[in-house]
Amino acid sequence: MKELRLMKGNEAFAEAAIRAGADGYFGYPITPQSEVMEYLMAEKPHERTGMVVLQAESEVAAINMVYGGAACGKRVLTSSSSPGISLKQEGISYIAGAELPCVILNVVRGGPGLGTIQPSQSDYFQSTKGGGHGDYKLLVLAPSSVQEMADFAGLGFELAFKYRNPVLILSDGAIGQMMEKVELDEQKPRWTEEEIIKNTPWATTGKTKNRERNIITSLDLDSGKQELHNIALQAKYREMEKNETRYEAISCEDAEYLIVAYGTSARLSQKAVDLLRAEGYKVGLLRPITLFPFPTAVIAKLADQVKGILTVEMSAGQMIEDVRLAVGCRVKVEHFGRMGGIIPSPTEVVDAMHKKIIGG
Amino acid sequence: MTEEIIIAGFGGQGVLSMGKILAYSGVMENKEVSWMPSYGPEMRGGTANVIVIISDERISSPIVNYFDTAIILNQQSMDKFEKTVKPGGLLIYDPNGITRHPERKDINIYTIEAADEASKVGLSKVFNMVVLGGYLKLKPIVQPEYIHKGLEKSLPKRHHGLIPENEKAIAKGKEIIKEKYLLN
Asked: What is the pLDDT of residue A1?
């Protein structure tokens, strides 16, 4: 039986992480995601499952604790908001390079710099194009409800271990702070030491006589070998593109116009679709659930069907570049968004649709 | 049925918790709900508001800019939210501290002297529940038994002793809400 609760997105993520059998959380407080650690501290998961919850001295320390925990085959996670995620980028690049699994939550706030504490989606480039150095990709999940904040904690671990790759959950202040109904999965047991050795043969679990040493590093000074490593990474990213692309298509079957939006913007846009349909316009919504891999194929297909596409993002327009790449020049693609922590209203989206796409 | 509500006032007036109790009551009655606070540096003394949506259907956007009901508890919120009530909608306010009263003629307006009443009967801590009672009198969108369950769920166990006091305040609110301007 699933348990029904009313929770904030941040709290739902924290509870779901415990229930997904996480071994450790390492974080540092920042608005608007502080409830993740507050919830974990209050819940004392070390008494429930043995899970460690630790407030590190900084974001840099927290991500490197994740690096260490992941190297040992543990299910570890961290969370922060935009400026804190920027601080973690070096560690994230190392974890991607060393091919370790972990879950990272970014509850995005407006930037640049310290910016504001209000919701934003201006970290799309950072999340999908590699916020740190080097040719790497994170698997990026974009929740648009409190339920998905909970679901993606478990899914995040599953995908992270499947691909030995960091999974980034790209949320925002609105999803993190709002409360909705959420159905919680039952508690999954944490892996035992024996299960970790069995499930993560690559981890530094202590060398035994009958195997080679496991070395976790992102450093290889031999350029030839480093190139081979990069080729292998790229092959892994292509596998993710093949297997893990996720999206939701709402009212797209008969759509003559399309909105593409993720996260909070997708929720606003869904209301905008209802309002526009009430006016008699056949508008659909394509909501990417994975931002990497991006649902390029379905958007390309819809481009043949619709007369125009509006991307709605709480940014200056970042995802629009991926939509345009998918569409080519076959159909007009325009952006609507607000910046600096302002959430647009559904009627602003309706107006933008009229001005830029339907009437434009 | 979909009811989109904004509750707005000073931080510390219990605006967010009023919304939370309403939302939890909706959950108990198996409705769809969302609770979207204005969060941030708006603590005690600043302004605070929350959008609560209760619906029989899946809620698309938790953020809307026009409301079926606005519950307004200070002047700043009146200035900001009077204009966001949908035509034919409902505005409830506590006149205490209001210097410019609402002027719209296309909505129903009620007053509730909750601050006065709460302090008179020594219920100032449950001021917000007096307001909630007034609202529920006009729009019984959740049944009283579910309000009770909502209180149980949203108050920590150690505060369950306060539930009768909260329910008394809700009953008081139902008594004292007054018409100010009604559409024909």
From this structure: 60
ipTM: 0.92
Residues of chain A with Cβ-Cβ distance to B154 below 8 Å are 6
The tokens describing A207, both together, are: 């060398």
Q: Which site among A178, A264, A349 would you substitute to test the B interface, given the most B Cβ atoms closer than 10 Å to its Cβ?
A: A178
Chosen from A6, A10, A109, A342 to mutate, greatest number of chain B CBs within 10 A: A6
Domain A3-194, CATH: 3.40.50.970
Q: Does A251 touch chain B (CB under 8 A)?
A: no
Task: Provide the CATH number for the domain around residue B132.
Answer: 3.40.920.10
Q: How many domains does chain B have?
A: 1
A247-358: which CATH number, 3.30.70.1060, 3.40.50.920, 3.40.50.790, 1.10.1200.10?
Answer: 3.40.50.920
- What residue ranges do the domains of chain A occupy? 3-194, 247-358
pLDDT at A275: 96
Pairing of strands A76-80, A166-172: unpaired
Neighbours of A122 (CB within 10 A): 24
- A101-123 pLDDT, tens digit each: 999 999 999 999 999 999 999 99
Show which of residues 13-52 on chain B sit within 8 Å of chain A, judged by CB atoms: 20, 23-24, 27, 32-37, 39-41
Q: In chain B, which residues have their Cβ closer than 8 Å to the Cβ of A117?
A: 39-41
For chain A, what is the mean pLDDT? 97
Beta partners for residue A179, in sequence order: A8, B35
Please, are residues A17 and A153 in contact by the beta-carbon 8 Å criterion?
yes
Q: Residue B47: which pLDDT band, with cuts at 50, 70 and 90?
A: confident
Is A155 within 8 Å of A103 (Cβ atoms)?
A: no
B120: pLDDT strictly greater than 90: no
